[in-house]
Amino acid sequence: MNLMIIGRKAQDAASVLALTETAKKREALLHIAGLLRKETKSILAANAADVAAAVEKKVKDSMIDRLRLTEARIDAMAVGLEQITELADPIGEKIAQWILPNGLRVRKVRVPFGVIGIIYESRPNVTVDAFGLCFMSGNAVILKGGSDAINSNIALGAILRKGLEDCGITPDAVCVIEDTARETTKELMRLNQFIDVLIPRGGANLIKTVLENSTIPVIETGTGNCHIYVDKKADLAKAIDIIINAKTQRMGVCNACESLVVHKDVEAKFLPMLAEALAPYHVEIRADEAAREIVPQFAEATEEDFGTEYLDAILSIKTVDSVEEAIEHINRYHTKHSDAIITKDCKAADLFLRAIDSACVYVNASTRFTDGFEFGFGAEIGISTQKLHARGPMGLAELTSYKYQIVGNGQVRS
Amino acid sequence: MNLMIIGRKAQDAASVLALTETAKKREALLHIAGLLRKETKSILAANAADVAAAVEKKVKDSMIDRLRLTEARIDAMAVGLEQITELADPIGEKIAQWILPNGLRVRKVRVPFGVIGIIYESRPNVTVDAFGLCFMSGNAVILKGGSDAINSNIALGAILRKGLEDCGITPDAVCVIEDTARETTKELMRLNQFIDVLIPRGGANLIKTVLENSTIPVIETGTGNCHIYVDKKADLAKAIDIIINAKTQRMGVCNACESLVVHKDVEAKFLPMLAEALAPYHVEIRADEAAREIVPQFAEATEEDFGTEYLDAILSIKTVDSVEEAIEHINRYHTKHSDAIITKDCKAADLFLRAIDSACVYVNASTRFTDGFEFGFGAEIGISTQKLHARGPMGLAELTSYKYQIVGNGQVRS
């Protein structure tokens, strides 16, 4: 189907969805959750075709794991939709209201974006998860998944559309793009007339491609070169606990710690403690010269190390003379995602909180808390690392815009 | 100077500005306002060179008028800066705060974007106006004006920088790009590493070019194909007053009315009233067939007319059978800027307010009120027609982002 036609249908569906009542949206999500469970067999059959093709192409095991659906994973998608129905509906919230001197009554009201485009890779669960969040926030969604998962996505998309239709809601509220050609994706990224915002979900390369090719506003998510600064007044035992958590609890996630900054006054005591504590986790440490003078077995860190999101069992270390130097270093090399200071000094903590230019800045806590569920949003479409629109974990409210409603009785401008 | 160097300097300046106190920002703006008045002669001399070059190039008179500075226009820039100092500083506002079950205290705090890029055309006053708004909201700004105004912009930029330096603030908080090559502008639009948001200010072509070439998040401003719908229950006399105001008070602005939608039940009475009322303003009316049957002297409207922002003494008319049809027509052809309904029917008004997908939706008032000053923001950098980040008139608060500050006592994620 032509993208222009899909765009127009999605836009028409969006104008209906914007006025759809909360109860009706919840009813549809619960019905679709049931359908997903009922259709487990047909979903698994479609997914088996994708997995077989990937095996044939000798795709890496880790990629095949992302692609593979199981009964448990399908149930998890259904549970995800059910959980969304428990969240407050952000649409219609009065954000502000005031009366102008000329008597005009102005209301600032939360509304859906309209049409959201999601471009993602090989995880088929994104098809259902992203639909659920976009739908509950009153948005139509156009889904463009990876070609690896095309059979799974088509099967899931058909269930979502059938479920909507069963509930008397236009199925065009969700559209899975079936054409996997690269040209189609490029065309999609320039469909400004119909798509209000584009959210890429995936690795750094996907996000870069979307940023470079899209003329539609993009929400950039994901990259996290997160730092922890151990201040001269740090509780060193707490620092160790927090670093072990932030570095090793899950290595491949964006809120994992990639780099330490250590104050020189504590390095002699702290670095050997750290080396010992991290040893069981097999984390390679790449450090600057001062740190290597204290722990000679640390590898040498290059300039490039400080700017790298490893997503792996590697940690870089930079030593500094002051909290100011730590802030300057972090603001130069981080990706504005999440950074933490470990200190008992209120003044240093306050300066760090204000001066570090990140979505989430922590005092005495693990960077791993940057997460929509941990923050209490009850959902997460991603973690924004840009400053336009939304920053940090994005829940339902971050999938909305606003408009002004102005009521008068004949006012004209003089 | 190399753009990378400018970007880095602006980013460094931004990290200082983010922590600069309100009083100090106000002091600097007042000082610069004084400097502008003091340097009127040198500014006029630089501007005279630009005007002479434009005359030589046989540029249109209307363009030269935009380019030309006078003592009064320079004073107006100074007054603009003084007015900004009277506004509340948005930076540091606590937007929300809560405590998580694990004891983490989360604060959502308003912060500057960081570095804002402004790309504009030949009005030199934008150099000062945009600087003032960006500076007061704690942002460093990189200004890329049109080549026509380069001498004026360089002179103004030097005064801004000197004024900042006089007050002990880094002059890199503002940078006027002196290189007028197109390639430089393209390079600027891809400086993601240093620029957080790009705001084009100018005509539709400029905005289109920036949208197509920028990899930095853009705030789209300006285009307004604004509609007024005259309902079957409209007060027709009020409708005429509002339409005359919205169409004729200023023809070339984005919140002017470009198209009428008229309910068939009132067309026979209303259209002749309208033709008579608009006659003194020499507005050409292009109407659909039903309207031309009533007033044969109306010209014929094509499909293209309904989608056109004339910015001129032309008005299109579409007749409809219902408020629903009016909404569908408007949502199809408008630019999501400002649209109004004229009606005494609360139900029709309510449906219109909810269903029209525009930044500003009016009941019984002129679309000309879509303006930061009219809304009481005390300032305006532009009117956003996109839904990401900010919609409608943008004041100081719309030039900010937020961050989360999270304070714990050793929490780790389990």
Largest sheet of chain A at a glance? 7 strands, parallel
Distinct helical segment count of chain A? 15
Approximately how much helix is present in the residues of chain A? 40-55%
Quote the beta fraction of chain A. Answer: 15-25%
The global form of chain A is globular
**Uncertain residue segments of chain A:** none
The CATH architecture assignment of the largest domain in chain A turns out to be: 3-Layer(aba) Sandwich
Number of strands of chain A: 16
Mean pLDDT of chain A: 96
Q: Rg of chain A from C-alpha positions?
A: 24 Å
Overall tally of domains of chain A: 2
Oligomer: homodimer
Given helix and strand content, the structural type of chain A is: alpha/beta
Name the biggest interface: A-B, 67 and 67 residues
State the name of the first-level CATH class of the largest domain in chain A. Answer: Alpha Beta
Terminus-to-terminus distance of chain A: 50 Å
**CATH fold node name of the largest domain in chain A:** Aldehyde Dehydrogenase, Chain A, domain 1
Strand order of the largest sheet of chain A: 10-9-11-8-7-12-13
Features:
alpha/beta, homodimer, Aldehyde Dehydrogenase, Chain A, domain 2, 2 domains, 7-stranded parallel β-sheet
Produce a short descriptive summary.
Two copies of one chain form a homodimer. With 414 residues, chain A is of the alpha/beta class.
